[in-house]
Amino acid sequence: MGIIFSELPLKLGENTLRVDAENKLGSDYDEVTFEYKSKVVPAVQITSPKNGIIVGAAYVPVKAIVQNVASKRDIRITVNGSIFSSFKLENEVLSSRVIVRNGENKIVIKAVNDYGVDSDTLTVLFEGKPKKPTIVIENPDKSGKTVSDRNFQFIAKVKGILHSSYVNLTLNGNDVKGVRYIRDENLIKADLKLRKGRNDISIRATNDTGSVRENTKIFFE
Description:
The chain has strands spanning 13-23, 26-36, 43-48, 53-55, 59-67, 75-79, 82-83, 88-90, 93-99, 103-113, 116-126, 134-139, 145-147, 151-159, 167-171, 174-175, 180-182, 187-193, 197-206, 211-220. It is mostly beta strands. The chain has two domains: 43-126, Immunoglobulins (Immunoglobulin-like, Sandwich), CATH 2.60.40; 134-220, Immunoglobulin-like, CATH 2.60.40. The strands form five sheets. Strands 4-11-10-6-7 form a five-stranded mixed β-sheet, with no helix packed on it. A five-stranded mixed β-sheet has the order 13-20-19-15-16, with no helix packed on it. The chain is rod-shaped. The N and C termini lie far apart (121 Å).
């Protein structure tokens, strides 16, 4: 009776090992079948958005690379400690639209297999939805003002927008082109050509929360 030691190359999946022995009195053998799995732990890396980002919407698109898992059942997303189960996994790319709350949010993506665990963490700051825009018309300084020059520069202070495309300005029902937004001063400016008599001016500003409109009139004589 003896002990045999040997290092054998294994293939992935099922392997069968058989040992044969014989002597003058006869022969015998024994065999065992077993499955070999490559010992590879999961890998998780959040690719977007950047850690510490400040967002203005309650839905945050999140993407991550997740490797060495059998299916999405081996992945868990938590947001501020609560499980968030809405996500897709295709070709090792995880994508989701995570719902966050006001303030700081901690998003953790964790993957598990038979050989280990890996995770990555993202911090997102949500400042809440923006307030509706506000409009204060500065020129004309009052509705019903009379001017003697056909060329008139309209000026309004508008807060809660990002650029001029968030503003619609009309003169006598017609859209005004060339509206400018000076962001540092929150000013909307436009050069108007007035018609004889009464001129109606309407300005509307819109953002993700809502819109607001202000109207004024000016007379050219």
